[in-house]
Amino acid sequence: MYGYPDYMDDSLKKVEKTRQKRVELAKKGLKNVLIPKSAEERDEVLSKYHPDYQPDARRKIKVGPNKGENLTAKVADLLETHSRIDLENFKLDKPDYETDVLVIGGGGAGCETALWAMYNGANVIISTKLRIGDANSMMSQGGMQAAVNPHDSPTIHYLDVVGGGHFDNKPELVKALTSEAPMIAKFLSHLGVIWDRLPDGHLQTKAGGGTSRRRLLSARDYTGAEIMRVLRDEVKNHPDKITVLEYLPAIELIKDGEGKVAGAILMHMETGQYIVVKAKTTVITTGGFGRLHIKGFPTTNHYGATADGLVLAYRAGANLLYMDSVQYHPTGAVFPPQILGFLITEKIRGYGGQPVNKDGELFVFPLEPRDVEASSFIKECADGNGIKTPDGHVGIWLDSPIIDILNEPGTIEKAFPAMVRQYHRFGIDIRKVPMLVYPTLHYQNGGIEIDVNCHTRLPNLLVAGEASGGVHGRNRLMGNSILDYNVFGRRAGIEAAKIAKKTKIKGKLNIDHVKKYEEELKEAGIKTKEVSPMLLPEYRNLKILERHRKEFDPFLPAGI
Amino acid sequence: MAEEAQNNKLIPVYILSKKYYVPEGSTIITAMEYAGFKLKKGVGCREGFCGACASLYRLPGDYKLHGGLGCQTVVQPEMHIVQIPYTPAEKKRYDIEKLTPDNAPFNELYPEVYRCVSCNTCTKICPQELQVMDYVQAIIKGDLELATDLSFDCIMCGLCGVRCPAEMAQFNISILARRLYGRYLTPKSEFLEVRLKEIEDGKYEKEYERLMKMSREELKKTYYEREINFDIT
After folding, report:
1. What percent of chain A has pLDDT above 70?
2. Are strands A320-321 and A326-333 parallel, antiparallel or unpaired?
């Protein structure tokens, strides 16, 4: 398949026809494009169209610290499963590694935590499921929010964050997030991250959804990759202090005789070998849950985004916060099919790109918070104003060519090389034609509840990044995820090093909490063959799986 | 699931030299999964950003060895495919604070950069279509700004290093160039220092306190009444 199918020509022409009119509107100021929704209008579109509000979206969890609470159904399913470990025969007496700080997860939060723990005198082990840096952090395109303009301030940033999060955010976390953002911008620059800048050196800023000022710092549309590869490079500069264990995901936490979290059990995914890491402090930085494909949505997320850390922490007794809330990114690709669900950066709209329907008409303010924007797209398609794809999906146009008219010719190529490249591979030139988009599963708004120093309620267990809950309330704004993992990764690293200095692991290492959780499952009458953490999603052809032999394949789904 | 091929026409491909029939329109990754491989290495973001799925392939009647990202390359009939889960490559340790933004660090850390014979093999195989050889030459000349610009979209998949007859790991060399450029040669923001001082001096503490004390209703009112202005900075 190459380019758009012929039957879309009429609709594409309409988009072209309305473009000049929309340019004129936008030139009068973005507010004139369409007026942002009021509180009541937001509530209406969310309650009618957001996938979280559908009756089957949530269910009560029967076990664990959040027992009786409504969680996203797929998350509850994932948590009501068995350990991957043979509990009766597992021996913990000889740890394979001992360290001050064990960081579980090798993405942005993990690397940031490891570096700051090291700066504060700790020896660190990073355990990661795939390669270090293979993470959602690498895929983020748009940017990082930081109030670095005179007419903006950390407190205006604060207000935007809590409004976007439906006022459910934990205030002290938002204060840390927003007040430390400019410092993070400088720290990263010091490591060698190249921000987009104006000729005088001032950091270039763009508007983002749900922001009230231009606050988005970027590095072309490889912002996440630029930061992640620099952090990874810096981690690799210190092999004497930071040991990286790749392809070794954690599958269970361990505790000491006093009930403190004291490391984790890792599993080699190809040989099935277990590795025991004994640690004075443990930090979970495993990211989010996009690969659970909640409500059947495609996802922008990395192959490894299966909420592993959530499972480990929950079994050990840590509570979750806002795990009833899922972020769908408004602009996921729906055509061509090879890139279904892929992220189209919000920065496209930050530069003036506009969502329009099949008739080329505007129907929503382009920079609402993500949940409101996504719900508005779903509504427009449900009302019959979307464009159908040959394989039965539906979407609306994201008019990108308007960017070169509103800015200057060549802007798209310069600011969005990744997007131009992505579509060019399939014969679509986004400098000339729009992209077809529909909401896609993007972010875990909630997570393991943390305080401002990243502590969970379990001693010696910290969490940072997407795996944590509370920072973003029930909806994260764009550009606050990179910021989150940097701010709280740093805080977790400093804190973990501090705690490690005071900690003595006492008594016998054990996994009694996992045994207890198994009993709880039994008491609750849960009968399942499923095990977790999931580690990797299942995309194999089911017919072929039936011929596989279970003894060779610990990943075969239950029932096969 | 999410990335399942949508039509049912099957085409023959060779994965690690064994023949399989996979749906037309599959990428290398989805073709392997359709064939029954559980990918535990050589796969990452599946969107072309992480460089984990570097792959090599040959096409019938074509003498060339091609490279591509497994998640971005659509399979063709009779294609022979092999994946490279990771590229063994030299990555030198350094303290960025002790280096200078010119070619001196490369003389010391990556002297193999001077072995470049300008064959352009790296450029030809780059799945990001970067001018790899040109950025290597820019590094040799000490032009880190040009090297940064040309290598910026590198996702470090390692294919250039696999093919290089001079046996250098271009992707590890260019990240040093970019970090030096970012650390030392980008103009600094004066206002950022002003803002950092303001925060340090507690200029926003009172406003934070006011906002954090507000009831939900007050906060809601303040939020919906706030000025939205993208025209000022």
Report:
1. 99
2. unpaired
Minimal CA separation from A299 to chain B, in Å: 8
On chain B, the residues whose CB falls within 8 A of the CB of A236 are 91, 93
Domain housing A14: 6-33+332-440
**Which chain B residues touch A149 with a CB distance below 8 Å?**
191, 232-233
Q: Do domains B10-83 and B96-185 have the same CATH topology?
A: no
Whether residue B52 and residue A159 make contact (CB cut-off 8 A), yes or no, is no
* Residue B175: CB atoms within 10 Å: 20
Angle at A440 between CA A434 and CA A446, to 5 degrees: 140
Residue A552 lies in a domain: no
Q: How far apart are CA B186 and CA A99, in angstroms?
A: 38
In this complex, the residue of A1, A135, A148 whose CB is nearest that of residue B192 is A148
Mean pLDDT across the stretch A533-540? 95
Closest CA in chain A for residue B190: A202
Phi-psi region of A465 (alpha: psi -120 to 50; beta: other; left: phi over 0): left
Give the best residue of B26, B33, B37, B49 to mutate against chain A (max A CB count within 10 A): B49
Catalytic residue list of A: 329, 349
Q: Hey, CA dihedral for A268, A272, A273, A275, is it positive or negative?
A: positive
Instruction: Please list the residues that pair with A82 across neighbouring strands.
Output: A531
Q: Are B179 and A233 in contact (CB < 8 Å)?
A: yes
pLDDT of residue B1: 39
Distance to chain B for A523, nearest Cα, Å: 34
Whether the predicted pLDDT of B5 surpasses 50: no
Among candidates B7, B222, B229 on the partner chain, residue whose Cβ is nearest the Cβ of A159: B222
Check: CB of residue B172 under 8 Å from CB of residue B106: no
Instruction: Give chain A positions within 8 Å (CB) of B205.
Output: none
Query: What is the tally of structural domains in chain A?
Result: 1
Query: Which chain B residues touch A303 with a CB distance below 8 Å?
Result: 39, 43-46
Has residue A436 been placed in a domain?
A: yes
Q: pLDDT-based confidence at B7, cuts 50/70/90?
A: low
Domain segments of chain B: what residues?
10-83, 96-185, 191-224
Say which CATH architecture domain B96-185 belongs to.
Orthogonal Bundle (1.10)
Checking if the pLDDT of A101 tops 70, the result is: yes
In this structure, the strands spanning B10-15 and A387-388 are unpaired
| CATH classification at residue A377 | 3.90.700.10
Q: Is B31 helix (H, G, I), strand (E, B) or coil?
A: helix
Is residue A25 in some structural domain?
A: yes
As a whole number of angstroms, the distance between CA A149 and CA B195 comes to: 8
Q: Across the interface, do B180 and A541 touch by the CB < 8 Å criterion? A: no
Q: Is A418 helix (H, G, I), strand (E, B) or coil?
A: helix
Please answer yes or no on whether B44 and A303 come within 8 Å at the CB atom. Answer: yes
Q: In this complex, do B181 and A192 lie within 8 Å of one another by their Cβ atoms?
A: yes
Here the ipTM equals 0.96
Residue A24 counted as domain residue: yes
Inspect the interface and report whether the beta carbons of A130 and B44 lie closer than 8 Å.
Answer: yes
Q: Would you tell me which CATH number, out of the four given (3.10.20.740, 3.30.750.24, 3.40.50.2300, 3.40.50.300), belongs to the domain B10-83? A: 3.10.20.740
Q: What is the pTM of this model?
A: 0.96
Binary contact (B195, A175; C-beta < 8 A): no
Q: Are B22 and B11 in contact (CB under 8 A)?
A: yes
Residue A104's H or E segment, with its range, is strand A97-104
Residue B105: pLDDT over 60: yes
Residue closest to A104 by CA, chosen among A3, A203, A250, A236: A250
Task: Tally Cβ neighbours within 10 Å of residue A267.
Answer: 23
Partners of B199 on chain A (C-beta within 8 Å) are 154, 179, 182-183
